[in-house]
Structures are given as C-alpha cells and as structure tokens.
Design goal:
Layout lengths: L3 H20 L4 H24 L20 H4 L3
C-alpha cells in the first residue's frame, strides 16, 4: 500500500509536470489527457490517504469517535 506521503508527492509531481508542459507549449493532446485524468488521480490520492495505516494512533477506548492523535485528557474541554 502506498503511504499518504508518497501519494501526495506523486500527485504533486503530476501537477508540476502538467504546469511545465503548459509552459513549454507542447501539443494539445498530452495536456488534454492530463486534464482528463487528473480527477481520477486526485480521487486515488484521497483514497490512499484515508486508507493509510502507517501512523500509530491510540485506541479510542470504546468511544464512537474522537481525536485519534490526542488523548482525551489533553483537550481540556471535558
């Protein structure tokens, strides 16, 4: 599985290449292909980020939801 960081880097490189191709005035076909493919690339990145399990988070302890990166005691609201 691709980590969230790697997925974001790949999509960023895709966009940078797209901008460079626009700047160099290459023929329309590759740029049009990249425009057509970009929504799918973006959805792929979002799915990779949501499915990323490389970071370790504490157990929520029976609660239905919570901040996975902070303890309940650190929030100071409860």
């Amino acid at each position: 599985m691709i980590t969230a960081k790697n997925a974001a880097i790949m999509v960023t490189l895709f966009v940078v290449i797209y901008i460079i191709l626009l700047y160099v005035n290459i023929p329309y076909n590759p740029v049009a292909y990249m425009i057509a493919v970009f929504p799918f690339v973006l959805v792929w990145m979002v799915i990779c980020i949501l499915k990323d399990t490389s970071a370790k988070y504490p157990d929520l302890g029976g609660h239905e939801w919570g901040y996975r990166d902070k303890n309940r005691d650190e929030l100071g609201l409860f």
